[in-house]
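Section 5: illustrative case.
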């Protein structure tokens, strides 16, 4: 007699119920034990990182940024709202609720009053003590926050014209016209559709844009209501990878080399130990500078407002602030995710371009965007005109896809080399100082999937920005996946992206051989 088809007594039901409860308890114990072990392992690694850093620390002083934290939050909030309204085109109410928590924490916003001045294209945020911080739209350079008491920045914002052809009548990738026809036969259309849908579920993920290219061809694309293929979205620290790319073009042109000491003017005294910081160390996020950041394993909020955010919200000369920080460790010994390094890389970009006699503010457009067909990029500055490309930049998902495909193609575009040979390998190879810290996850202003944060090959690498912004490059599968979303949905958005990538891996075949993918 089949037991599962013939349960006729309450005794059997009781035993069955007890068995299920026992199994449930066993599974719960295993699950909790696994979580506990994982947490213990993470805690051990964190303690080891802190101990290692302490043993290598130099006897220099950490001086926190000046000013009131709430006022810095207000400055950040004004800029976030200004860019959301005048660059992205979102409603102010939606932006205040969902956008840009990084420099304007959500819980702090309730303490402020804000007003959008559409006539003058400005946003004013007022604190309980009556202090008002203002951000203004300055045209092609987006928005910037003004120092207290100032009505204009300390430079003349330029007009930056694109030399690109009309995107609507130009074929992808230089324009937005896509070839007709369905998916390549090698791909399962049903799985691709499920992958796209997964990226937008649940609604709380607030996914704004999702673009997938295979061999350079767009095979999947979807946008949130109100977002288009040309909408510049908050991109945050994906701008660090953009910074890497601009540095790469300068290296190709002979302005710099990776292993040379960074020629920061403030470091050129013969007795200055910072003279030994190489450009490679800066790009590896291992310059060793004292620059407190929330990502530090021993970060203590009681230690004052972090430098990491101050270069956004302090309305200062961000290049000068980063360049005048002392060493905490010798370069290339400790890896820390700190904005000092991308800020200094952007300083190097300005130094090289102006040394050439070139126009600094139009350089990204001429050196990169015009060459890749990137039509939507908006790069913002501090009040002194210094690009804040560690996170204050905006771009459409298709443009980030174009940038990802430049890396997928080893820095070659339309048959022309834009990045030097070996540069793509450099940014996608683990940084030595991060490996020494037991964190195989960072390269040269790019993250690496070394800990398999994503369900894709460990060799994949990616641009990442706060709030759930990703451009993921998977060379083994000829894939570039761009996911962008509104900040509030970042947690749910990350889980949605995980599910989407799992599905893509089920249908996209591995590349045969090592040749570059065909963009046609």
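Designed sequence:
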């Amino acid at each position: 007699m089949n037991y599962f088809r013939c349960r006729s007594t309450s005794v059997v039901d009781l035993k069955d119920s007890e068995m299920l409860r026992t199994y449930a308890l066993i599974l719960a114990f295993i699950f909790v034990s696994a979580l506990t072990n994982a947490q213990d392992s993470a805690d051990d690694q964190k303690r080891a990182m802190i101990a290692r850093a302490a043993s290598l620390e130099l006897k220099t002083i950490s001086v926190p940024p000046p000013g009131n934290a709430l006022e810095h939050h207000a400055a950040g909030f004004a800029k976030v709202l200004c860019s959301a309204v005048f660059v992205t085109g979102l409603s102010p109410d939606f932006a205040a609720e969902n956008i840009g928590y990084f420099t304007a924490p959500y819980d702090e916003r309730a303490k402020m009053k804000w007003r959008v001045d559409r006539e003058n294209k400005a946003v004013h945020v007022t604190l309980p003590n009556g202090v008002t911080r203002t951000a203004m739209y300055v045209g092609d350079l987006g928005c910037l926050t003004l120092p207290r008491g100032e009505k204009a920045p300390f430079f003349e914002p330029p007009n930056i014209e694109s030399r690109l052809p009309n995107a609507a009548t130009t074929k992808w990738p230089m324009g937005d016209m896509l070839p007709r026809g369905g998916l390549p036969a090698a791909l399962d259309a049903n799985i691709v559709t499920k992958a796209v849908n997964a990226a937008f579920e649940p609604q709380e993920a607030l996914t704004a844009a999702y673009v997938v290219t295979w061999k350079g061809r767009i095979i999947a694309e979807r946008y949130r209501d109100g977002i288009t293929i040309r909408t510049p979205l908050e991109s945050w620290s994906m701008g660090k990878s953009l910074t890497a790319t601009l540095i790469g073009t300068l290296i190709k042109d002979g302005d710099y080399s990776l292993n040379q000491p960074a020629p920061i003017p403030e470091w050129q005294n013969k007795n200055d130990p910072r003279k030994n910081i190489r450009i490679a160390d800066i790009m590896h996020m291992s310059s060793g500078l004292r620059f407190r950041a929330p990502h530090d394993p021993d970060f203590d909020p009681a230690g004052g407002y972090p430098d990491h955010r101050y270069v956004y919200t302090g309305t200062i000369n961000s290049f000068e602030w980063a360049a005048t920080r002392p060493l905490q460790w010798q370069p290339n010994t400790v890896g820390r995710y700190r904005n000092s390094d991308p800020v200094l890389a952007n300083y190097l970009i300005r130094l090289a371009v102006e040394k050439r006699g070139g126009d600094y503010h139009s350089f990204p457009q001429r050196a990169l965007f015009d060459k890749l067909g990137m039509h939507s990029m908006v790069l913002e500055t501090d009040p002194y005109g210094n690009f804040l490309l560690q996170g204050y930049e905006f771009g459409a998902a298709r443009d980030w896809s174009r940038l990802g495909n430049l890396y997928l193609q080893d820095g070659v575009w339309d048959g022309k080399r834009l990045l030097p040979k070996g540069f793509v390998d450099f940014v996608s190879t683990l940084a030595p100082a991060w490996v020494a810290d037991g964190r195989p996850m960072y390269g040269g202003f790019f993250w690496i999937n070394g800990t398999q944060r994503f369900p894709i090959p460990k060799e994949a690498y990616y641009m990442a920005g706060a709030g759930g912004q990703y451009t993921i490059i998977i060379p083994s599968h000829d894939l570039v996946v761009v996911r962008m979303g509104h900040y509030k949905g970042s947690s749910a958005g990350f889980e949605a992206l995980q599910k989407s990538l799992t599905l893509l891996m089920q249908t996209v075949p591995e590349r045969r051989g090592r040749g570059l993918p065909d963009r046609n």
